[in-house]
Amino acid sequence: MGGLDVRMQKVTCRHGRVEAVTGVDLEIAAGERVALTGTNGSGKTTLLRAVLGLHRQVSGTVLVGGRSTRTAADWSWRRRTCAWIPQKPAAGRFPLLGEELLASSEAPADAADGARRLGVGALVGRPLHTLSGGQLQRMYLARAIGCVAAGAQVLLADEPTAALDFDGQEEAAEVLTSLPVTLVVVTHDRTLAARCDRVLEMAAGQLREVR
Fold first, then answer.
1. Any idea which fold 6-209 has?
2. Beta bridge partners of residue 206, listed in sequence order
3. Are the CB atoms for 69 and 62 separated by under 8 Å?
């Protein structure tokens, strides 16, 4: 099993003056699969974005593979190492094609193979904004497969099965949990949570272990 450990110490995230995440301590072992559950607005997405460096107002320490983010080179390494599936992937106003999204994974052949496995291989020539929510989610999952093939060792996924039907959720859960990475996934999907090693619940910006 691949993957890198992720360690958070006293991580607090703010939106302006509002604390979205409060003093989170969390250790995730290399290769472990962790589900983050909890109500909307409880801080789950903000916590994932803090790992990626997409949330600016963060205090505390976030280490991936024991490495912090003191320099631009550190941030560049973090972004290569951590793949990201956003909650509501933005198709944008620009006519970005499926194959261009897959190519951004740095391993386009592996991403395209993932798209075929996920049933969206025939759609790669279409602009993203013409895809349904479920098709777009599958395309982003295929991109994540490419990122892992290109060397990503941590996958952060935010509601990656929300737009899929039951069969699609099962298929995506199987793909996500079989990748050789450390997986941290925000989800309300019980099928996906059941496949994870640990389940954590977030409430009012604080974490507690559920399983």
1. Rossmann fold (3.40.50)
2. 203
3. yes
User: What residues does each domain of the chain span?
Assistant: 6-209
0.85 surpassed by pTM? yes
SS3 assignment, position 66 = coil
> Of 50, 55, 54, nearest to 10 (Cα)?
50
Exposed, middle or buried: residue 123 (CB in 10 Å: 0-12, 13-18, 19+)? buried
Q: Tell me, what DSSP letter sits at residue 121? A: G
Q: What's the DSSP call for residue 197?
A: S
Task: Tell me if residue 105 falls in helix, strand or coil.
Answer: coil
How far apart CA 55 and CA 46 sit, in angstroms, is 7
Say which DSSP state 97 is in. Answer: B
CA distance 82 to 48: 10
Q: pLDDT tens digits for 58-112? A: 899 999 999 998 899 998 999 999 999 988 766 566 678 999 999 999 999 999 9
